[in-house]
Amino acid sequence: MTALLQHPGYEEERLQRVAEQLPCREVQAGLLLSLMGQPQQYSYPSIFIYGHRASGKSHVIYQTVGHYSSSLQLPHATVSCVECVSVALLFEQVLLSFFGCDAASLLPRSPSLSDFVRIYKQQCSQSPAKQTRYIVMEKAELLRDTDANLLPALLRLQELVEDNITVILLSEIAWDKFRPNTGCFEPLLLHFPDYSKGELQQILSQDRHPSYSAELYSSYINILLGVFYSVCRDLRELRHLAALNFSKFCEPLAEGKVKETDTHKLWRNIEPHLKKAMQTVYLREVSSLQWEQMQQMEEKETGALRGLSAHTHVELPYYSKFLLIAAYLASYNPARTDKRFFLKHHGKIRKTNFLKKNEKTSNHLLGPKPFPLDRLLAIFYSVVDSRVAPTASIFSQISSLVTLQLLTQVSHDDQLDAPKYKCAVSMDFICAISRTVNFDIVKYLYDFL
Amino acid sequence: MSTSSVSKGCFVFKPSAKKKKTLSLVDYFTDGCEGAENSEVRFKLCQDLWDKIKADTEVLQDELNRKILDSLLDFTRKCSSTPSEIPTAALVLGVNVPDHDMTFQSLSELLQQSVTPHVASVQAKECGALKHLMKRVLERLMDTVVTVDDEEEEGEEAEQTEQTSAQLHKSVHCSLGTLCDWYNTKTKVSTGTPGKKRSSPAKDEQQQPPVVIIFKDLEAFNPRVLQDFILICSRYIERLPLMFIFGIATAPSTIQHMLPHSVSSLLCIELFQSLSCTQHLATVIDKLILTPKFPFKLNGKAMQVLISIFLYHDFSVRNFIKGIQLALLEHFHSQPLSVLCCRKKEALLHMTQLSHRDVERIRQLLSFKRYVEKQEQQEQVNLLKDDNHLKEVCQRLIKDLNKYHKNYYPVLRCLHTLTSSLPRYPLGKQIRELHLICLEKNVWENEDYQTAMKLLRMLAKDELITLLQRCAETLQSVKSKKMKNALVQLEELLTKFKQLDTAVETAPTVEESFTSPVKNLQKKTDLFQLQKTLLEMNETRRSKKLSPFEVLRNEALDFIDGLVRSYLSPPESQTLNEVCYYSSSATVRRHLNATPRTSIQAALSSPYYYLQNDNLKTEDGSVSNAAPDICIAYKLHLECGRLINLYDWLEAYATVVSAAEGNDPDSDNFGKVDEVKHARFIQAVSELEFLGFIKSTKQKTDHVARLTWGGC
Question: Which of A233, A332, B85, B313 is within CB 3.0–4.6 Å of B268 for a Cys-Cys bond?
Fold first, then answer.
């Protein structure tokens, strides 16, 4: 199968080694190589590679273009767009890896694209490219948020700098979402499909444990995929999980209870364990480190360790609780119904009289609605059981609830006049809060009337 | 100032030396101080006391945080093993955000001392964008190290580091790559073995101190920024041993709310839960308030204000201590006799040095007057006439007050031990509640106290014994004579209880019939049922003879009751309590829990209160027509409904103002709107709008809407 990777201009042996590193991606690698042509030939100006996370995009590029000692080692610059908080950083990294730090220091304070092109040309005339230079841009989707001219310029950089250069963009998003509305040079598109289950099995089986046979590891991977394939196809994550749980899988073997060939028993041993891993360590409810510790502990003790989401209890000052309750009521009750809930002599008004057409659906399904500060305070004063002076600290509590993200401010920060808020807590949370202050919130909610 | 120069120009006048002299703290304290003659002594006392309190609280804070900080430190030490994930400590600190600063302060100090010199902490408000976050992290990490650099390194790095500050502003080198290079040079220099870095990873871990980044307030961070930052960091984790600490105020699930799985899978998150703030407060009260160590005390109401601010508003222990500081300062500032509020020896000394005026002040004290009234005729005369005699008596009184404090707190603790486990907590769960009750009035007259005692009289034997033993333990550490006596008595009782065991065996039949209802009682927590059994028990008690255990139990509880009655009287009953007790709860409330709206309304409706101009004085609460325009406009707008017609308002205003100008009500010009009045009115209205009483509305033209409700 490695025979697929053949290309003139590169050493046969080197290609062979590269191919070994790229299981299940031979087709894509071959295509890429043929696009690149021979090292000294001009290549296509820009290539756009897309595919889901952990589908081997960066891996293939690193193996072919450079980065690893085993790869073809062509002149290249790798830039992660997430790291480039400014374009200057991007330009600098490119110049640095092609021409050394002298060139990078030539960049002016806040360089524009033309500065970059100028310096590149200047440097290029001193050291012209003997082989195609490659710029690899990871997470290219972030380029859309930078200056509007950057992406179109990068796509035809070959023309601009008049050098043998190719820009390779890597992204998880399809090209259609990139195309600027002013139009641009169309790059060559190369799609990396997801690995199939078989391919995952093949790749994962490669990193087997040296002290156990390849078949055993392969059967372990089979079991692992049986549990996790339905929720997770991310190769990296699967590899992580495989490494974490392998010791548990081998436990009966080490104790001598089971032979390597007895897959059924091994499966019975590991399956509940993996299921548990799916609910905890996969969701990062417990950290990998804690998971490893848990494996060493006895079954009883592990019950004590609770996941992150188990801790939802939040202690709040007394009035903050009522402010939050008032905010919840204001967010989920229509303003018209306030009279019904908070006025003493509201008369008998049935829910049916209240109903408007659009309110037949539950307010809880629609999510919280914004409310002005006045309404929040009015409800607060009628809900809280004692007389509260409108002190400064009541108001500061509202803003601290906002910083704690229990409320969100809808209007802009600058708007001092009648700010608007939304309540950002769940029903369960508010029920727990109101229970601590003996307030029956359900009685005040329009949806549960 | 003038110059003799004729030419034009700028002249610099240096301020003269006199003006330059800044007021020292003492001067501020003395300024406007009640009884200025001994103010400096008082200031010194106050400052000493505050320094002591502050030092104590800091020690306390450190002790409380020690456990969690230790486990965090362990975590940072052992966490550099997982290569693919960034070790992250989620530190849940509770919603009392003002207190967190101190915790983070000591945390980063500890980290720097014992784990790694590379610690940077960032706050959300300074990191609006990824660029800024990056810049802050780099600046803090590199700068802190640069300052401790030795000479040789500076030679190598000076250029780089000096440039970094320049370049950071240029934000060209503002990437983690720079940090990586910096870190490598740093560790190479410190270990002295360049080139051998990758050879022995196990050793490297110890030599390579982690780079810790503390996010002080995770909730407030922009999730986008945080995600990008984590993504970047995870690219460098193999080269740079990074570590995060997330300060979380609400619940750890916020992490999952903020970070998607793709990002949180890069982290190895471990949870650390800190002490709850109520527990923290309980310790602070225990160590600062419920101790005779500090002569300064708060009376019931002032205490209540501070505690309710804590419970109702902010949960912040730091603010609570600030409140105590305020009360302390106010006490020494406003009470001239506070010169006696210090240790016994000093107080006695100060007593002898009191001036005649201060002695008069003592005579004016309410508690002293009561004391005098109780004395015999001759003694009364002596006390009121003879300063020296009074000083002697007062020295004795000060000693008494000291003794009172020495006995009060142990007995309070005993009573709390006994009552804190009773069903429904008749005297409160926390000792502070009991303390408040005792400060208020005679606790034994309290109804809840009676119930508590009744419940105690129904306790089973082993429970009672353990409680009494715990009481004995509290009393053991007290040095006062009376408490030692009490301890002896208590221990005698305890031995009697133990002897009972042997006695019971001789007469088991009698015992059984009595203990059965008692045993039932243990299960019941319902008050109604308790009362029912209580009545039943009363009846049985009447009908049957008491068992030896019950006799003994009654004896023990009578003893406790006796202790309470003799030592837990409220401080107001003590003579000279005003010296130590700060009682102005209104001042504390006004300063700590301000009511801006009430003050604005007070200013508008009774301007005399602030302006102190006699013309503005009115009797019936109405506003004089000579008041400032805004007050008149405010008063008039109170008479309106939700919507105010501007023209009517203007007319009314013009009438009032004309009357103030003394125009003849019958003349044609009376109440006419001229330009000046119009302008003044408009100004008043816009001022009211600025204060938030009205706003423009689109419902009706030439109307404004009122934003407050209620009228005159």
Answer: B85
- 3-class secondary-structure state, position B395: helix
pLDDT in tens, B436-463: 999 988 889 989 999 999 998 888 888 8
Burial class of residue B338 in the structure, from the number of CB atoms within 10 Å of its CB (0-12 exposed, 13-18 middle, 19+ buried) = buried
Total number of domains constituting chain B: 4
| B123 and B230 both lie in a single domain | yes
The pLDDT of residue A258: 79
The complex scores an ipTM of 0.89
Return the number of other C-beta atoms located less than 10 Å from residue A342's C-beta: 17
Per DSSP bridges, beta strands A188-191 and A371-372 are: unpaired
Amino acid letter for position A428: D
Distance CA B404, CA B483 (A): 11
Where chain B has pLDDT below 50, the residues are 1-2, 20, 145-172, 192-205, 507-517, 712
| Boundary (domain end) residue, out of B247, B275, B303 | B275
SS3 A372: strand
Tell which of B227, B243, B275 closes a domain: B275
Of B626, B646, B638, B641, whose CA–CA distance to B686 is shortest?
A: B646
Distance CA A173, CA A83 (A): 18
B90 shares a domain with B217? yes
Pairing state between β A407-409 and A420-423: antiparallel
- Taking contacts as CB-CB distances below 8 angstroms, the residues of chain A near B596 are 392
Q: Which residues of B touch A115 (CB under 8 A)?
A: none
- Per-residue confidence (pLDDT) for residue B17, from 0 to 100: 55
Kindly state whether B313 is in contact with chain A, defined as any CB-CB distance less than 8 angstroms. Answer: yes
Query: Each residue of A202-253: pLDDT tens digit?
Result: 888 888 778 888 888 888 898 889 888 888 888 888 888 888 888 888 888 8
Give the closest residue to B88 by CA, choosing from B251, B230, B275: B230
B 583-642 near A (Cβ less than 8 A): 593-598
Q: Which of B220, B252, B313 is nearest residue A397 as measured by Cβ atoms? A: B313
Q: What's residue B64's pLDDT?
A: 85
With beta carbons under 8 A apart, name residues in chain B contacting A390: 595, 597-598
CB B359 within 8 A of CB B340: no
Taking only the tens place, the pLDDT of each residue in A120-140 is 988 888 888 788 889 999 999
* Confidence at residue A312, expressed as pLDDT on a 0 to 100 scale: 75
Size of interface A-B (CB pairs under 8 A): 141
Distance in Å, alpha carbon of B278 to nearest chain A alpha carbon:
10
Looking at the structure, do residues B520 and B409 belong to the same domain, yes or no?
Answer: no
For A424, half-sphere exposure in the C-beta direction (CA atoms, 13 angstrom radius) is 17
Give the mutation candidate from B133, B313, B688 for the A interface (greatest A CB count, under 10 A). Answer: B313
Phi-psi region of A243 (alpha: psi -120 to 50; beta: other; left: phi over 0): alpha
> Can you give the pLDDT at residue A346?
62
Quick: pLDDT tens for A89-116.
Answer: 888 888 888 888 787 788 887 788 899 9
Same domain for B316 and B253: no
Answer whether B138 touches A (CB < 8 Å). no
**pLDDT-derived band at A350, boundaries 50, 70, 90:** low
Fold of A2-191: Rossmann fold (3.40.50)
For A290, which residue in chain B has the nearest alpha carbon? Answer: B270
Closest chain A residue to the Cα of B316, Cα to Cα? A317
Interval A393-422: pLDDT, tens = 898 999 899 988 899 999 887 777 778 999
CA distances from B554 to B533, B543, B690 (A): 18, 17, 69
Identity of the residue in B217, B254, B268 whose CB atom sits nearest the CB atom of A289: B268
Greater confidence, A78 or A287? Answer: A78
Determine, for residues A85 and B174 on separate chains, whether the beta-carbon distance falls below 8 Å: yes
